[in-house]
Amino acid sequence: MWGPEKRVLSQMHLNEEFLRHAAECELMAKFARKPEDKVTWSQMAERWVRCAELFAEESSAAAVNARMKLRGKAVKLAYH
Question: What is the rounded CA–CA span in Å between residue 45 and residue 22?
Fold first, then answer.
């Protein structure tokens, strides 16, 4: 089942999933034998970390926007 509830749960844990992928890539880089493979895995790990950072920033901004909208509605209700 992939309903709205599942999507919400997935979005809540995306940051951790991105970081888990980064850790897996770092592990692969550690055990890679060829230098070019180490570089590739390390770059992939960096990209996953960046995805986690961007997701956290966007999630934080979205939360602030949601609070501002709620606050604006509360102010409008108070004056009506």
Answer: 4
**What does the radius of gyration of the chain's CA atoms come to, in whole angstroms?**
20
Q: Is the pTM of this model over 0.85?
A: no
Question: pLDDT for 19-29, tens place per residue?
Answer: 999 999 999 99
Q: Which runs of E-coded beta strand occur in the chain?
A: none
Q: How large is the angle between the packed helices 14-31 and 35-79, nearest 10 degrees?
A: 170
* Rounded-to-integer distance, Cα 37 and Cα 73, Å: 54
Six-digit token string for 14:
């995306």
What are the domain boundaries of the chain?
A: 4-79
